[in-house]
Amino acid sequence: MRRRRFISGLVGAGAGLGLAPASARAATRDSGGSTGAGMTGGTRSATAGAPHDWQAVPAPDCTPAAQLLGVAAAGPDLAWAVGEEGRNGSILGRPLALVWDGTSWTRLDLAHLGFGGALRSVAGTTCQAWAVGSGAHLLRWDGNTWREADFPGRSSSGTTLTGVAVDADGGVWVCGRGSGGSVLLHGVDGTWSWIAPPPSATTATPSGVRVTASGEVWVYDSALVARWDGTAWTELTAPGGLRPAVTGLLPVAADDIWLTGYDYGVGGPPGKPPGVTLKHWDGAAWTAVTAPFTVGMLTGIVDDGQGGPDRIAGWDFWDQTRAHYLRWDGGSWVSERGPTATTPVLPEALTSVPGTGGYWSVGTTSSSPYPPAQVHIER
Q1: How many contiguous H segments (helices) and E segments (strands) does the chain have?
Q2: Looking at the domain assignment, is residue 5 inside a domain?
Q3: Consecutive H or E run containing 210
Q4: First to last CA, the chain
Q5: Helix, strand, coil % in the chain, rounded to nearest 5
Q6: Residues 38, 39, 40, 46: what is their CA dihedral angle, to the nearest 10 degrees?
Q7: Does some domain include residue 181?
Q8: Which of the listed residues 31, 109, 222, 240 has the most CB atoms within 10 Å of its CB?
């Protein structure tokens, strides 16, 4: 997995993915249908996709260097953000978690967890919330704080967890790698099982997992983009890259899939910034799409509430004191800027807020893992 945080195939064949072609999917979106929150297709207000006035939100002081790597929202009065605090270069820090109560963000005491490193991903609804941490740590929200949860292979050598998502039926999906080579763990009603690995038997560890409105489960990284339909895997051509990191995937239709990330390219001097990665799957192949800025990172993508593209979060190397979001404008991605700050702004994760048309964007104030980096939050 190369998901770094601090910086130092035909349309006809695609129908086998269980997604409709883009034209049919667009007609479905126009009909006004919606689905449950907490995944691709969550209900949004009519303002989704319209220009958004981003505002900075006060965040608790954390132990420098601090960063938020994941965010999820159950509604306007409940959201979670997770990451790491107290890191110093290559010396790992401690898990960090914040919770939003509708009025303010509160930092939680996680001393009871007893492990080092980061919480990397979080997902939740009004009924449940889950997070994953460095190594093989799976956490469940108990209404007040995060607690370790058991799962098959938790103590096995080679087990690692990297991302989490929830579906409309109460299922939990965790990507990573099990000791037997599986890359997807499923939990429902307290029963957990590893899904058999994809046919390619790839050695890639996916960096993320996404559940669509219709229930397909996708895992993704630079070496693996695959869909689990409950019975079998379907794999796309790997998006590849020279020194890549994949941060997000949005499956809209069989011939309309978006992928975000960054790539360090060939060599270069110490401190060389990465280049933006924005790719589109047309049913047969991945095509690189030129973004409004090209040096930096794209760090997350959300849909419009009905499965279509909406927003991407990004870090612009040449203009670091404002987050650089991309907004889908009916056929292309256009720039949308966050408020100007007195520090650099590096968004690490983005989520929409069910039922409001709003967003949470979380990250850090430095591209280097050293104090005095602090967390940064916008909405």
Answers
A1: 2, 27
A2: no
A3: strand 208-211
A4: 29
A5: 5, 45, 50
A6: 0
A7: yes
A8: 222
Report the C-alpha gap between 159 and 218 in whole angstroms: 19
The C-alpha atoms of residue 65 and residue 59 are separated, in whole angstroms, by 14
Q: How far apart are CA 379 and CA 377, in angstroms?
A: 7
Q: How far is CA 92 from CA 61, 95, 128, 379, in A?
A: 18, 10, 29, 28
Which residue matches tokens 């895997």?
233
User: Cβ(7)–Cβ(273) under 8 Å?
Assistant: yes
Token pair for 350 = 């983005």
Dist CA 232 CA 179 (whole Å): 20
Q: How many CA atoms lie within 13 A of 307 on its CB side?
A: 28
CB 280 within 8 A of CB 257: yes
Of 14-18, 84-88, 171-175, 275-279, least confident by mean pLDDT is: 14-18
Q: Do 235 and 199 touch, CB atoms closer than 8 A?
A: yes
> How far is residue 296 from each of residues 4, 234, 321, 334, measured CA to CA in Å?
13, 31, 13, 16
Q: Quick one: tokens of 232? A: 């079998």
Strands 286-288 and 296-303: unpaired
For residues 343 and 366, give the distance between their C-alpha atoms in angstroms, rounded to a whole number. 8
Looking at residue 322, its amino acid is R
Q: Is the pLDDT of residue 188 over 90?
A: yes
- In the beta sheet, which residues pair with residue 184? 175
Burial of 4 (0-12, 13-18, 19+ CB in 10 A): middle
3 in any annotated domain: no
**Structure confidence by residue, pLDDT tens digits, 71-84:** 999 999 999 999 99
Show the domain range for 166. Answer: 11-378
- Reported confidence tier of residue 25, pLDDT bands at 50, 70, 90: very low
At 199, give phi and psi (nearest 5°).
Answer: -60, -30
Angle at 357 between CA 355 and CA 359, to 5 degrees: 105
- CA atoms of 105 and 99, how far apart (whole Å): 5
Is residue 1, in this structure, part of any structural domain at all?
no
Return the CATH number at 93.
Answer: 2.130.10.10
